[in-house]
Predict the structure.
Amino acid sequence: MSARIEHHVTLWQPAPSMFTHAATLVYDPADPYAVALEFTSPSGRPDGGHVWGFARELLVDAVELGAVVGQGEVHLAPEAALTADVQWLTITLCPGQPGALELLLQQRSAQLFLADTYAAVPVGTEACRIDWDAELAQVLGGAA
């Protein structure tokens, strides 16, 4: 089984603040359809409780197809050119709610992360990675 993939990234809050946040993009081949964005505390450790999970396909659609995607608590969209030499992806957490957070991620970081996820689990092979008996047992409360 492939190891968990982690890419440490920096996220920026848009102007005027331009605060930065350390985070990690995470992919676990045992959960092949999902990716996670884990925020990191100032000490460099994962900040428990601040993990946002979403479909790998959403990240693919936003980065590779330039689509505006997302439902629920995570929305992704390519950002209009902020700088001439860097393309950005906007990540909005809890859109439309008080306290919604909009962050910017360099698209190149997302592209490199996706390339590593494809190497671990090629698109179209995700279902082969799932232990369906274990999943069914979990749904049935261990009675499979």
